Amino acid sequence: MNNRKVIIFSAPSGAGKSTIVGMMIKQFPQLEFSISATSRPPRGNETYGKEYYFFDTPTFRKMIDDGAFVEYEEVYSGSYYGTLKSELERIWGKGKTIVFDIDVKGGMNLKRIFGDNALSIFIKAPSVEELRRRLLSRGTDSPESIEKRIAKAEEENGFADRFDTVVTNDNLDKAVAETARKIREFIG
Ligand code: 5GP
After folding, report:
1. In whole angstroms, what is the distance from residue 187 CA to residue 118 CA?
2. Atom 2, ligand 1: which residue's CA is nearest?
3. Where in this chain does the record put each Guanylate kinase-like domain (predicted)?
């Protein structure tokens, strides 16, 4: 039970969270990424079982009713995202620490569930202008989607102090080094 640890990453979209999470997974073989289920369609060359388990909305709703999720949220209107119970067992079964990339509300829920077995990390983007620039340069979101994500980001930044630790990503190398240090302390 002791080694059933989890690391929770939450951040406004565009804060660089996915980049940092990806680098942590590469750097620490003890970590494995929890693949969420979602009802949104795949973007670009995303594939089932890699970035997400993709389901249509009726199937996702059925899985909610069947109690398949530890937590789930309608992160954007009409788009569900959730953590599958089966995913936890899959990763812990290998003796690894689970890494979550999850929205702020979901992150706070998971912290409540896992308590001291969880390290919750909030990645903060430097400013709304920088956030808009990053989302634009990513080139995967429509203008409406970008504005939706920025509005959400401003709201989500207000929750930073509910996390165990906050890393501001104004410089990627620094943010990565700081995150790695916190993870090393936590997994021992
Ligand atoms: P995206 O559509 O950009 O891949 O993700 C949108 C948001 O959903 C991100 O903030 C991401 O962290 C969040 N998310 C991904 N998986 C889950 C999950 O399993 N549960 C919750 N609550 N949020 C998730």
Report:
1. 10
2. 40
3. 4-184
Give the relative orientation of helices 17-27 and 172-187 as an angle to the nearest 10 degrees. Answer: 50
Best mutation site among 46, 74, 102, 104 for ligand 1, i.e. most ligand atoms within 8 A of its Cβ? 102
| DSSP-derived pairing of the beta strands 79-84 and 69-76 | antiparallel
Ligand 1 lined by 103 (C-beta under 6 Å): yes
- Between β-strands 165-168 and 118-124, what pairing exists: parallel, antiparallel or unpaired? parallel
HSE (CB half, 13 Å, CA atoms) of 162? 17
Q: Is the CB of 156 under 6 A from ligand 1?
A: no
Ligand 1 centroid–CA 40 distance in Å is 10
Q: Which atom of ligand 1 is nearest to the CA of 13?
A: 10
User: pLDDT, tens digit, for every residue of 47-103?
Assistant: 999 999 999 999 999 999 999 999 999 988 899 999 999 999 999 999 999 999 998
**Among 119, 120, 113, 63, which Cα is nearest to 86's?**
63
Summarised one tens digit per residue, pLDDT across range 120-154 is 999 998 788 888 888 899 888 899 988 888 888 88
